[in-house]
Design brief:
By secondary structure, the protein is mainly alpha-helical. The chain is built from 12 helices and 5 strands.
């Protein structure tokens, strides 16, 4: 990537992180953090668009913070942040809502599948693509890596950025979509027609990052394939063999090789499932060993472990400070305020938005060196 590239990725704590989250998002993030300017966040506000239990959400946020660090994200190389601790996200979201057309939100997949025609649907589910656009545009990323299912949200972001720039001047960077070739969208082992999702209630086909080895093996062994047999049964053909192709793609993503190459080395589904289980365990073992709460972990105290530090300590610094007079939120203006919130949260004190002073009208704010 070019030296001036800025990359943004956010994960929503809607469930326990999965193998798909690691291969499609977290692992590429750990590689890119050493190459370009990276901003990685926990989009906890998005997790509130559906019914949730506050205590469960807090637990998931803590687990996600720890796992992001255990997977190799380094606060000394990338900016890590928690969305709800940066008020600029919601402030810019309102300004972008004033730029968005209802006709652009109606086709969004999440609302169509989970909310349309249901009176108890939360309004935030309808408008959350605009908040996602604010999440992106604040940090001026040039590239946003997403799975195919999230592409439409980045396309909406591009549309809003271009419209805003046309109306108010050149404010936002218009980001490009970046989709990993392999492992971007692993499918559910029990139902290979649907995505392996962390929010799936039935976890029989979902491999989670903290699943014990015996649980991983059991899920892979029970993975849906088909009744094909004989020579050539193990082949990569997503259209007619979705289950087999999914297992091949899992192995390919874990071992960083081509699915076709994996298929050439195997002659039966039993061999394929054993290869997949070993490949998955080889990826999960180092992560779990660095997790103090994992059965395979080293028992390190959350307080003393680097993985236990608040992800907000890295002082999120969104962008657009150059255009404060155009009513766009300034990340640089957050300065040390976000760090103050983080330190108070780490000491167990109550945090509040007023600790981070962001004055849009007159652009006052302290800049701090990264």
């Amino acid at each position: 990537m070019h030296q001036d590239t800025r990359q943004l990725s956010l994960l929503t704590p809607s469930g326990h992180l999965t193998l798909g989250n690691y291969l499609g998002a977290l692992r590429p993030m750990t590689l890119h953090q050493h190459q370009v300017a990276c901003f990685f966040g926990i989009s906890d506000l998005h997790a509130m668009t559906a019914a949730h239990h506050p205590a469960t959400l807090r637990t998931l946020i803590t687990e996600m913070r720890t796992l992001m660090l255990a997977c190799g994200l380094d606060p000394t190389h990338a900016t890590l942040f928690q969305q709800s601790r940066v008020p600029a996200h919601t402030e810019l979201a309102y300004l972008l809502e004033c730029t968005t057309h209802v006709g652009e939100l109606n086709p969004m997949t999440q609302f169509k599948e989970k909310g349309r025609g249901r009176p108890m649907t939360r309004a935030s589910l309808y408008t959350y693509p605009v908040l996602m656009a604010a999440d992106i545009l604040l940090y001026r990323p040039t590239h946003v890596p997403v799975g195919d299912d999230q592409r439409q949200h980045v396309e909406l972001t591009r549309t809003l950025a271009q419209r805003f720039n046309t109306t108010y001047g050149a404010v936002f960077t218009v980001p490009e979509v970046m989709v990993p070739v392999t492992g971007a969208r692993l499918m559910d082992l029990a139902d290979p027609t649907r995505k392996m999702s962390k929010s799936t209630q039935d976890g029989a086909g979902v491999v989670r990052l903290l699943d014990a080895p015996d649980v991983v093996r059991r899920k892979v062994v029970r993975a849906v394939t088909d009744s094909d047999a004989g020579k050539g049964a193990v082949r990569h053909d997503p259209a007619t063999k979705p289950g087999v192709s999914n297992l091949l793609e899992i192995v390919a993503a874990c071992e960083d090789i081509d699915p076709q190459q994996v298929a050439e080395d195997l002659t039966s589904y039993a061999e394929l499932k054993n290869r997949a289980a070993e490949a998955v365990l080889g990826v999960l073992a180092p992560i779990q060993e660095r997790m103090p709460s994992s059965p395979r972990g080293q028992g390190t105290s959350r307080r003393s472990s680097p993985m236990g530090r608040s992800i907000a300590e890295t002082r999120p610094r969104p962008s657009c400070g150059r255009r404060r007079r155009r009513w766009v939120c300034s990340a640089d203006a957050l300065g040390e305020g976000a760090g103050t919130v983080a330190s108070r949260l780490e000491r167990g004190e109550e945090g509040s938005a007023d600790l981070v002073v962001l004055e849009l009208a007159n652009g006052r704010g302290r800049r701090t060196a990264r």
